[in-house]
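Here is a typical sample entry:
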Amino acid sequence: MLSDKRSSKLTNPTLGRFVLPQQRELYLQMKEDEKLVPMPALEQDELESFQYLIRDAAREDYAITVSWWQPTKGDLGKICSMWGTLKWIDQNGRRIKLANDEDVQWISLDTITEVNT
């Protein structure tokens, strides 16, 4: 039991002591920043595979899962993911419209990191 308290205090130094709201906010922001990643570099064959899956899903009207990189701070961002059916492919704007029961997202083709069926 004692080791559980120690490990939790190591991972969260604000646990068990008085902390100003600004200090807590800064600590939480630092923890969020640690999760940020640079945009992944993808090979040409991966991009072609994504494009094939996207066109096929739109043509055959089946659900896919799309992951994309969303910039947050400069060159760092987070990977978002959503499943749904493709409602529109905007060739000129280089983006897709993905929809499910809960949400609708316009996703740039240039930020897609993974597509799964």
Notes: The helical segments are 2-11, 21-34, 44-60.
